[in-house]
Amino acid sequence: MSVLVVGGAGYIGSHAAHFLKRSGQEVIIYDNLSNGHAELAEGFELIVGDIADSAKLAKVLPRVDAVMHFAAFAYVGESVTNPRKYFENNFVSALALLNAVVDSKVRKFIFSSTCATYGKPVKVPITEENPQRPVNPYGASKMAFEYALESYARAYGVRYVAFRYFNAAGADENGKIGEIHQPETHLIPCIFEAIHGERPALEIFGDDYPTPDGTCIRDYIHVTDLAEAHALGLAYLDSADSLALNLGTGKGYSVREVIATVERVTGRKVPVKMAPRRAGDPPELVADPRRAEQLLKWKAKYSLEQIVTTAWNWAEKERAKKK
């Protein structure tokens, strides 16, 4: 099978591309490199293009059997201050990509969605039946595209899986690819920056939540586990209907527990600073991943310690290259 990985020069997309290649699939990466990095696409055919460029997509889509779509803006705070940017890219431009797919022979589509579509969950762990009530434009833009996929599936026969991620983390164990964000907002690499003095201290946003240690609890899933689920999603679509699935481990860790794990793995002390709560941060977001486990015969394998270890190894290697 040949797969077009859209946004394949980004963090999660590059890991999916590498996993597919190791599984024997042919992969073409399509990325405008606005947030992606060409070095993460080394070893692949890279087509530099925008997801709204229907003419360019029309030339490449006849060469592939399936599309994986990772190309999105994903900063929650920025989505609040600049919702236009998020709806234009994550929905309007993404719809142009979907239209190009419909106009081609491709009928398999894997979508990188998010647990942010749920907003503040009514029950934890979160099942796919939880109401989708996003509390920020990022989550709303992803939910809007999910609705488009559902409609296109009924009308045009596109088969899809929309994967609702929880907190992606870690790096490929081979050390070739990892997490590069500018600016960095994910907790684990932010902790590393605090260790190295690249930020004065790690800010903990709120320690008065109704959780055991007062800090937010999140479900951290290794990016390679995510990549494997995407590959299995393609196989699932050979004989099954479209659907949305949670991808998480089913176990949550507080901010303080993640910090303690980093200190244990690295042997370094993490400087911290308390800060006010961020608007819209739910106390606890943990997946119920049982549907994905049952339907895809998939299960997250990496522990939090393994997530931190792979992320640290990648970050230290990249830091050494810059010296």
Notes on the protein architecture:
There is one protein chain. With 323 residues, the protein is of the alpha/beta class. The strands form 4 sheets. Strands 3-2-1-4-5-6-11 form a 7-stranded parallel sheet, with helices on both faces. The chain has a 3-stranded mixed sheet with strand order 12-9-14. The protein has helices spanning 11-22, 54-60, 76-81, 83-102, 137-156, 187-195, 223-236, 255-266, 290-296, 304-322; strands at residues 2-6, 26-31, 45-48, 66-69, 108-114, 159-165, 167-169, 202-205, 217-218, 220-222, 243-247, 253-254, 272-275, 284-285. 39% of the residues lie in helices and 18% in strands. Strand 1 (2-6), helix 1 and strand 2 form a beta-alpha-beta unit. It contains 10 helices and 14 strands. The protein has 2 domains: 2-168 and 221-247, NAD(P)-binding Rossmann-like Domain (Rossmann fold, 3-Layer(aba) Sandwich); 187-218 and 250-287 and 297-322, UDP-galactose 4-epimerase, domain 1. The protein is globular and about 55 Å long. The model has no long low-confidence stretch (mean pLDDT 96).
- What is the architecture of the largest domain at the second tier of CATH? 3-Layer(aba) Sandwich
- Please give the order of strands in the largest beta sheet: 3-2-1-4-5-6-11
Which word captures the global form? globular
Tally of DSSP helical segments = 10
Assign the CATH topology of the largest domain: Rossmann fold
Secondary-structure element series? EHEEHEHHEHEEHEEEHEEHEEHH
Q: How many independent structural domains?
A: 2
Calculate the mean pLDDT score and round it: 96
Major sheet characteristics: 7 strands, parallel
| CATH class designation of the largest domain | Alpha Beta
What is the CA–CA distance across the termini? Answer: 41 Å
Quantity of strands, as a count = 14
**Residue fraction in strands:** 15-25%
The SS-based structural class is alpha/beta
User: What is the percent of helical residues?
Assistant: 25-40%
* Uncertain stretches: none
Q: Give me the Rg, rounded.
A: 19 Å
CATH homologous superfamily of the largest domain? NAD(P)-binding Rossmann-like Domain
